């Protein structure tokens, strides 16, 4: 057995995960002059936006109709549009931006490379180092074995609250009554489509339901959900539905990948053989990993509730706004709850701070919200906004030599306003 001395690194802020939340957190912290290390298990950044092929970006609106965008998200969108890699759209009265995931990978690399961030790809947190209730370091797994990173603040942007869980933070899993989580989906793209002769969306859904009734398609998804992409003749499909998947278990993830590909093949073959316009079509790509909608959610200093979301509640310490609907894919597979909101709600800074564990900020999907509120907060632009706030808070924590829980959210808000956040009003 090969043995070697464990390598040790030090930084001010360690960001675990380079998805939308982690990328934004790392950029925001580094721009405030602190030493940042960003680790990512894949060989590229973007998380669900790239590895999961989740598309498009689902946007939020103010009551007056203004699109709400965090400063770093706005910068990413601008760079995408400069490269003709983003397309504005709307479906079911919900605004969105379709984007090219390959160009997004390139843009994220460019932005990180031009920032004082030390990036480690093909690595992930495999353990934590605690001193009583303080998280002081992380054990990183890589090809050459383990190494340790000691940090003053850690931002958990793993999507599944992995670091928080390892640290012993309180959390919830799925919905309270049975711990079931929203289904997983393997996204895929189809090229060579004659969009000009395709049936209408309504006609396609009607035929899809008939094919399901006759047993020719076995997915439990109730409609054929597709989006246009930035490429002519290419459509993005979010149709597969794999139920009873716990994305924190290897066995469930394995089953989901196998089942997801089976469903994608079945749906594509149906499209190619039965739907006009798909006669010469082909699968362009399937996601590098199955899309996981829901796993752990930390229990933090405040738990955002369904009532908060539906009431459009504001908070003194809110660091993001969201108006994406309550969007729950039934954990047992039958149907989707899609409930539009009348006005945006705020996300408090307290939702990023776990109970009991110091020096840890959680950003992105697993922040402190209930099952219903989560179905709204989970979308990528909101995760990026939360991540940016987390990065600013982490930099303030380092500079003030104070726990993240003791950082005044008003300072974070002032930085966001200075950088151009249009969702914080005074």
Write the layout of secondary structure elements.
Layout: E1 7-16, H1 20-31, E2 36-39, E3 57-58, E4 60-61, E5 67-68, H2 71-82, E6 86-91, E7 94-99, H3 101-113, E8 117-120, E9 124-131, E10 134-142, E11 145-156, H4 162-167, E12 171-173, E13 188-191, H5 201-213, E14 226-228, E15 235-237, H6 250-274, E16 282-286, E17 296-298, H7 306-311, E18 318-322, E19 326-329, E20 336-339, E21 345-348, E22 360-362, H8 371-377, H9 380-400, H10 409-419
Parallel strand pairs: 1-2, 1-11, 2-8, 11-22
Antiparallel strand pairs: 3-7, 4-5, 6-7, 9-10, 10-11, 12-17, 13-15, 13-16, 14-15, 18-21, 19-20
Helix pairs in contact: 1-9, 9-10
Low-confidence blocks of residues? none
Overall morphology: globular
Rounded average pLDDT: 96
Biggest sheet, open or closed, and with what strands and sense? 7 strands, mixed
Strand content: 15-25%
Helix content range: 25-40%
The total count of strands amounts to 22
Distance between the termini: 61 Å
Given the structure, what is the number of helices? Answer: 10
User: What would you report as the Rg, rounded to the nearest angstrom?
Assistant: 21 Å
Structural class: alpha+beta
Describe this structure in words.
By secondary structure, this protein is an alpha+beta fold. It has ten helices and 22 strands. The chain has helices at about 20-30, 70-80, 100-115, 160-165, 200-215, 250-275, 305-310, 370-375, 380-400, 410-420, and strands at about 5-15, 35-40, 55-60, 60, 65-70, 85-90, 95-100, 115-120, 125-130, 135-140, 145-155, 170-175, 190, 225-230, 235, 280-285, 295-300, 320, 325-330, 335-340, 345-350, 360. The strands form seven sheets. Strands 1, 2, 8, 9, 10, 11 and 22 form a seven-stranded mixed beta sheet that branches. A four-stranded antiparallel beta sheet has the order 14-15-13-16, covered by helices on one side. A three-stranded antiparallel beta sheet has the order 3-7-6. Strand 14 (about 225-230) and strand 15 form a beta hairpin. Helix 1 runs parallel beside helix 9 (about 380-400) and helix 9 (about 380-400) packs across helix 10 (about 410-420). The longest helix has 25 residues, at about 250-275. The protein is globular. The mean pLDDT is about 95.
């Amino acid at each position: 057995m090969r043995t070697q001395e464990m390598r040790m690194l030090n930084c001010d802020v360690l960001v675990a995960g380079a998805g939308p939340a982690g990328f934004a957190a790392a950029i925001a912290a580094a721009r405030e002059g602190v030493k940042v290390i960003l680790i990512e298990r894949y060989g590229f950044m973007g998380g669900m936006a790239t590895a999961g092929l989740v598309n498009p970006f689902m946007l939020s609106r103010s009551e007056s109709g203004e699109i709400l965008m965090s400063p770093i998200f706005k910068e990413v969108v601008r760079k995408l549009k400069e490269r003709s890699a983003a397309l504005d759209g709307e479906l079911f009265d919900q605004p969105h931006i379709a984007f090219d995931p390959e160009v997004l990978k390139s843009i994220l690399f460019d932005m990180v490379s031009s920032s004082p961030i030390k990036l480690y790809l093909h690595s992930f947190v495999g353990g934590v180092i605690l001193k009583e209730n303080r998280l002081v370091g992380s054990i990183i797994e890589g090809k050459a074995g383990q190494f340790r990173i000691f940090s003053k603040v850690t931002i958990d942007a793993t999507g599944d609250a992995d670091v928080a869980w390892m640290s012993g933070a309180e959390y919830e899993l799925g919905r309270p009554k049975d711990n079931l989580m929203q289904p997983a989906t393997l996204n895929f793209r189809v090229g060579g489509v004659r969009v000009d002769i395709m049936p209408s969306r309504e006609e396609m859904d009607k035929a899809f339901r008939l094919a399901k009734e006759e047993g020719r398609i076995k997915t439990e998804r109730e409609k054929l959900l597709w989006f246009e992409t930035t490429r002519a003749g290419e459509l993005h499909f979010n149709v597969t539905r794999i139920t009873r998947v716990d994305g924190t278990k290897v066995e469930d993830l394995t089953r989901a990948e196998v089942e997801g590909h089976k469903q994608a093949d079945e749906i594509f073959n149906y499209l190619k053989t039965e739907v006009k316009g798909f006669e010469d079509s082909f699968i362009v790509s399937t996601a590098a990993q199955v899309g996981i909608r829901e796993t752990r959610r930390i229990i933090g200093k405040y738990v955002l509730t369904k009532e908060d979301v539906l009431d459009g509640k504001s908070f003194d310490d809110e660091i993001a706004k969201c108006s994406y609907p309550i969007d729950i894919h039934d954990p047992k597979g039958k149907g989707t709850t899609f409930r539009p909101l009348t006005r945006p709600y705020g996300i408090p800074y307290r939702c990023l701070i776990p109970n009991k564990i110091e020096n840890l900020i959680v950003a992105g999907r697993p922040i402190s919200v209930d099952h219903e509120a989560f179905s709204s907060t989970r979308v990528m632009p909101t995760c990026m906004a939360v991540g940016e706030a987390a990065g600013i808070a982490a930099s303030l924590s380092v500079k003030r030599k104070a726990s993240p829980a003791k950082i005044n959210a008003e300072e974070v808000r002032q930085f966001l306003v200075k950088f151009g956040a249009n969702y914080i009003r005074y």
